[in-house]
């Protein structure tokens, strides 16, 4: 039967965890006298009442021995090994690659697509292959539409900025903006009044 160690003082509660660790880690601890045991951690074990430490130490050794003597528990039903990837999971990446490269096209018949990699695509149940092939085409086509729209928007915005910065009255991206940043970095804005600094560079005028 499992021996439950009695609850003790706060000093014992602090010592209990460390004593359990030492019991597993310190070689020959089972044969140590009480004084030798206390000498391992005098600042902890030495604060526990001697009688309390003696009783709990004895109970711990008996409990540990009882646990070792217990027959091994029967293992439960073995967990089923995780199966590998499905035939579609294997085919999916290759089919996506074939579609993006143009090897498989949207107007091809399913049998023509399967024939591209018959040893792989042919292992996928036909109904699953047809459903997943349609979904894959739809997803990739939608992603390409979004990508094209984003690219066109970026090119449009870039063109606007390029045109705007070349206008004589546009500040952002101008030589004047670049030169003023340089003058500020060198502290010239502190040596000259704005009107004087303005006359120092032709780009400001």
Descriptive tags:
single chain, mainly alpha, about 200 residues, 11 helices, flat
Describe this structure as you would to a colleague.
This protein has 205 residues and is mostly helical. Helix content is 66%, strand content 0%. The chain has helices at 10-25, 34-40, 42-45, 50-69, 87-101, 110-116, 118-121, 126-165, 175-185, 188-191, 194-200. α1 crosses α4. The protein is flat. The termini are far apart.
Helix content: 55-70%
Provide a count of the helices.
11
Radius of gyration: 40 Å
In N-to-C order, the SSE pattern is: HHHHHHHHHHH
Determine the mean pLDDT: 81
Summarize the biggest pleated sheet: none
Look at the helices and sheets and give the structural class: mainly alpha
What distance separates the N and C termini? 97 Å
* Morphology call: flat
Q: Low-confidence stretches at least 5 residues in length (pLDDT < 50)?
A: 1-6
Number of strands: 0
Percentage of residues in DSSP E strands: under 5%
Give a short synopsis of this structure:
Helices cover 66% and strands 0% of the residues. By secondary structure, the protein is mainly alpha-helical.
Task: Chart the SSEs and their pairings.
Blueprint (H helix, E strand, L loop, with lengths): L9 H16 L8 H7 L1 H4 L4 H20 L17 H15 L8 H7 L1 H4 L4 H40 L9 H11 L2 H4 L2 H7 L5
């Amino acid at each position: 039967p499992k021996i439950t160690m009695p609850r003790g003082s706060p000093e014992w509660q602090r010592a209990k965890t460390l004593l359990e660790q030492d019991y597993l880690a310190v070689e020959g601890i089972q044969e140590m006298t009480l004084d030798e045991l206390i000498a391992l951690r005098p600042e902890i074990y030495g604060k526990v009442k001697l009688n309390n430490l003696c009783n709990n130490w004895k109970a711990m050794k008996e409990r540990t021995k009882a646990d070792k003597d217990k027959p091994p528990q029967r293992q439960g039903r073995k967990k089923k090994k995780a199966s590998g990837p499905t035939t579609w999971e294997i085919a999916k990446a290759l089919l996506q690659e074939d579609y993006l490269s143009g090897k498989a096209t949207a107007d091809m018949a399913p049998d023509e697509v399967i024939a591209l990699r018959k040893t792989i695509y042919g292992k996928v149940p036909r109904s699953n292959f047809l459903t997943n092939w349609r979904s894959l085409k739809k997803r990739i086509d939608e992603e390409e539409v979004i990508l094209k729209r984003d690219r066109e928007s970026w090119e449009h915005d870039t063109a606007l900025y390029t045109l705007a910065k070349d206008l004589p009255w546009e500040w952002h991206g101008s030589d004047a903006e670049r030169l003023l940043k340089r003058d500020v970095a060198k502290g010239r804005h502190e040596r000259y009044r704005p009107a004087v600094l303005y006359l120092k560079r032709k780009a400001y005028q």
